[in-house]
Amino acid sequence: MTVRNLTRGCFAAIGVLLLAVGFAEFIKRGHGHPIESFAKNTIANMDLGVEQFKVDFGRYPTTEEGIKVLLVATSDSRGSFGPYVKKANDFDPWEHPYVYKFPGIHNPGRFDIYSLGPDGKEGGGDDIGNWSNDGK
Description:
Structural class: alpha+beta
Helix content: 25-40%
Largest sheet: 3 strands, antiparallel
Strand content: 5-15%
Low-confidence stretches: 15-21
Number of strands: 5
Oligomer: single chain
Order of helices and strands: HHEEEEE
Shape: elongated
């Protein structure tokens, strides 16, 4: 084996190692993880439904009404409204119920919709919600 071939091999190994470390960091930060992406997309869909509910009724759903109100078609003297989401997403990918709070703690004057994340506990840095939290 020549010095040139040995050098190429070392550079190739270092390149593969750097790619692996970069990919691991990418996943660690929550980018590209399909389960987390599913939760984010579900929350974004429910967020839009809640905003449309407000357009129709002039208010956000109460905490007691929760996100279940988005699934029902209702009517009054003005006409028919809803449903605002196509199917119930009561549970996040980790089988924990999504949480809806109005007024919101993270979104004062609005509402919070969030997943408790993999640990199933509020806080701890893995919650996924409709607010900005270090890119999550």
